[in-house]
């Protein structure tokens, strides 16, 4: 009886250990302590990273949007784009799904582990440049 309990416990630990990397690990690009310039009219490179897992979904959280001079602002969102994906409106402090590939594209492409991916943003008002900070989960 004791052998069954020990064997069951060890089996449970092994199953949990095997699942942890997929559940707990994500490739996060953190630019929360920076103020990255974002042009008002054109997409500007904000972050880059290497994917650790296959897939096309990423999750962007803009923690703050500042005026171009670095002062606090009441700006609420930016337009984000990653690789071949569609433009996505991402509001400040609300995580937004940013796809690497347009789901309506005629040719399907999947970004594999090891791919270098880039995140671009532009302002929502063509007259106001801004600075952004946040995090980008490229393996969401």
Secondary structure blueprint with pairings:
Elements: H1 2-24, E1 28-30, E2 36-38, E3 44-50, E4 57-67, E5 77-82, E6 88-91, E7 96-99, E8 116-123, E9 130-137
Name a few traits of the molecule.
single chain, 140 residues, alpha+beta, Jelly Rolls, five-stranded antiparallel β-sheet, four-stranded antiparallel β-sheet, 1 helix, 39% strand
Number of strands: 9
Order of helices and strands: HEEEEEEEEE
Oligomer: single chain
Average predicted confidence as pLDDT: 85
**What summary fits the major beta sheet?**
5 strands, antiparallel
Rg for CA atoms: 20 Å
Task: Predict the CATH topology.
Answer: Jelly Rolls
Count of DSSP-assigned helices: 1
Query: Which residue ranges are poorly predicted, with pLDDT under 50 across at least 5 consecutive positions?
Result: 14-24
How large a portion of the residues is in β-strands, by DSSP E? Answer: 35-45%
The assigned CATH architecture is Sandwich
N- and C-termini, Cα separation: 43 Å
Decide which structural class fits the backbone: alpha+beta
**CATH structural class:** Mainly Beta
Relative helix content: 10-25%
Number of domains: 1
Tell me, briefly, the overall form. globular
């Amino acid at each position: 009886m004791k052998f069954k309990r020990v064997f069951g416990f060890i089996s449970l630990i092994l199953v949990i250990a095997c699942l942890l990397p997929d559940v707990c690990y994500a490739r996060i690009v953190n630019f929360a302590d920076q103020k990255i310039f974002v042009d008002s009219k054109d997409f500007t490179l904000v972050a880059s990273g290497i994917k650790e897992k296959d897939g096309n979904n990423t999750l962007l959280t803009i923690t703050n949007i500042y005026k171009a001079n670095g002062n606090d602002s009441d700006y609420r969102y930016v337009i984000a784009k990653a690789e071949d994906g569609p433009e996505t409106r991402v509001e400040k402090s609300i995580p937004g799904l940013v796809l690497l590939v347009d789901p309506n594209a005629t040719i399907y492409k999947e970004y594999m582990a090891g791919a270098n991916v880039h995140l671009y943003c532009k302002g929502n008002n063509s007259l106001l440049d801004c600075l952004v900070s946040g995090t980008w989960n490229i393996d969401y």
